[in-house]
């Protein structure tokens, strides 16, 4: 059974949690089809030393739907407004998948608002074949007649189907609002080139983490982004795929805790 975390809401309708209180602020942004609970292990551990704020994407969890076109720039604008509403100032941002694209947009458009940035299973300059495949999935999803279990085969290895992580993610996919999912997936499918050339100008400490078995957010993508960034490092978690923060929670949480000590 899914245990729902108690949320607050910003004036514009973004749902969030605010945990901990000591140390620097870390804002967590989840991926398409997920919600705050997908960060459970990281919230539990990192809130012991840091103030953790996690948000539901528009049309996900308990957040109001996105206003305007479903493109990445509007999600980035939405996220910047959430930071403003919460009066957070400069923050550390960690985004997973779609959340990583939003974090990239913040690095490109408002670098002064970042202390550090971490991309988990981030996308960077898809191949033509990969872009066509993800855009085809976006076209299917917008019809409303999509297979909610289909992502599980990409996100998890066969030996993980009986794991708690698999059950949690499947549960979240079954519950996600269809229109909110479609809007976010469209932005995800078309957003990998929006801000991809920003990295040479980024000076904040930057972590690029993925699983070595993630065929869509590949180790090569993480390594290329790290090389392009002035203060970037790649971390590849062996034996894991797209939901690496849930399937390898201790390794990922340790990597984020270490990242939170980096200085420019």
From TrEMBL:
One of its GO terms (cellular component) is membrane. Residues 26-254 form the AB hydrolase-1 domain. Pfam families: Abhydrolase_6 (PF12697). It comes from the Bacteria. PANTHER family: HYDROLASE, PUTATIVE (AFU_ORTHOLOGUE AFUA_2G14860)-RELATED, MONOACYLGLYCEROL LIPASE. This is 3-oxoadipate enol-lactonase. It comes from Rhizobium freirei PRF 81.
């Amino acid at each position: 059974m899914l245990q729902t975390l108690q949320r607050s809401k910003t004036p514009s309708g973004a749902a969030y949690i605010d945990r901990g209180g000591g140390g620097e602020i870390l804002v967590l942004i989840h991926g398409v089809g997920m919600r705050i609970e997908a960060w459970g292990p990281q919230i539990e551990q990192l809130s012991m030393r840091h103030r953790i704020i996690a948000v539901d994407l528009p049309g996900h969890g308990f957040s109001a739907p996105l206003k305007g076109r479903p493109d990445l720039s509007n999600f980035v604008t939405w996220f910047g407004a959430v930071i403003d509403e919460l009066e957070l100032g400069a923050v550390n941002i960690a985004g997973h998948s779609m959340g990583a694209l939003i974090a990239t947009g913040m690095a490109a458009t408002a670098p002064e608002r970042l202390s550090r940035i971490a991309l988990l299973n981030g996308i960077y300059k898809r191949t033509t074949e990969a872009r066509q495949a993800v855009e085809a999935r976006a076209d299917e999803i917008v019809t409303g007649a999509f297979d909610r279990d289909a992502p599980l085969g990409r996100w998890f290895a066969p030996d993980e189907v009986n794991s708690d992580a698999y059950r949690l993610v499947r549960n979240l996919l079954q519950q996600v609002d269809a229109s909110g999912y479609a809007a976010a997936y469209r932005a995800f499918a078309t957003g990998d080139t929006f801000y991809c050339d920003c990295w040479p100008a980024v000076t904040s400490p930057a972590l690029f983490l993925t699983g070595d078995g993630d065929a869509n957010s590949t180790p090569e993508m993480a390594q290329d982004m790290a090389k392009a960034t002035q203060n970037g490092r790649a971390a590849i978690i062996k034996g894991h795929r797209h939901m690496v923060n849930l399937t390898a929670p201790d390794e990922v949480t340790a990597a984020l805790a270490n990242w939170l000590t980096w200085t420019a």
